[in-house]
Specification:
263 residues; mainly beta; Thiol Ester Dehydrase, Chain A; Porin
């Protein structure tokens, strides 16, 4: 399996460029969405000013992204005094397979401060369950460690609306970036899959992730706490949101997904 950093390291500042997407990061017939979203993030970064922080990113998984050749295309939609909006497409065989909108903004003084989002009560990580090895779990999960402490394992038939625990890269031990956080967050299966009792296909349709503050200076091999909540699920679609904290209880990301499930 090619190193996550090495895959992102192909990207330059050019607004259009060809890259090679490796095998070994699959989830069903497509590549892992956390990796493809991280590629879009890395490509977008050159379109914003260095002092503008990524505030929100919305990804639409238009079609399966396959290993092999792909083209990245970046457009700066607007560059204002404080906020820059950047769009990125991943194109394969002359078709858009992923499109992303990224919003960057400078920090500004404000009288409004609501920063105490509570980290939920949780079981110790030592009591968490790892994902079992087997065909039910995509090949990309080999790059990550998991400890499930909330809800239950995928396909266990739990009816909890919450699902989560702890996550980290299994071997990659380098300073965390937004790209690596995208990989970590999307490494979790949809919370809906804890409600079924057998392996069931599911995929993200849209994903919005927000970063309320600067990314803490931590390692990608450190443990990060993840808790997802099912807001609503019916008719083959689910709507979820999740919060992600570092090991000191600081909120680092808020994630929202629309998921298709085939079971």
């Amino acid at each position: 399996m090619q190193n996550f950093d090495a895959i992102l390291g192909q990207i330059t500042d050019a607004p259009k460029q060809q890259i090679q997407l490796p095998a070994g990061w699959g989830q069903g017939r497509a590549l892992f969405g956390g990796l493809t979203a991280a590629l879009a993030w890395r490509h977008a970064a050159a379109g914003a000013a260095p002092d503008q922080q990524l505030r929100a990113m919305t990804v639409s998984f238009v079609a399966p992204v396959l290993d092999g050749s792909a083209e990245l295309q970046r457009r700066v939609l607007r560059q204002g005094k404080n906020v820059t909006q950047v769009a990125v497409d991943i194109v394969q065989q002359n078709e858009i397979v992923l499109t992303a909108l990224l919003s960057y903004g400078r920090a500004r003084s404000s009288a409004i401060q609501v920063t105490d989002t509570p980290n939920p009560s949780k079981r110790p990580m030592t009591e968490g369950q790892s994902f079992p090895e087997g065909v039910a779990f995509p090949e990309f999960t080999r790059a990550f460690d998991y400890r499930v402490t909330i809800g239950g394992l995928p396909f266990c038939g739990s009816k909890s609306r919450e699902f989560g625990g702890y996550m980290r890269f299994r071997e990659l031990d380098t300073p965390v970036t937004i790209g690596k956080l995208l990989g970590l967050v999307d490494a979790w299966p949809p919370a809906l899959l804890t409600h079924v009792t057998k392996p069931t296909p599911a995929s993200s349709l849209t994903w919005t992730i927000e970063f309320p503050g600067e990314i803490p200076a931590k390692s990608s091999h450190a443990w990060w706490h993840y808790v997802a909540t099912i807001d609503y699920a019916a008719d083959g679609y689910g709507h979820t949101h999740a919060h992600i904290w570092d090991d000191e209880g600081q909120l680092v990301a808020i994630s929202r997904q629309t998921v298709t499930v085939f079971g």
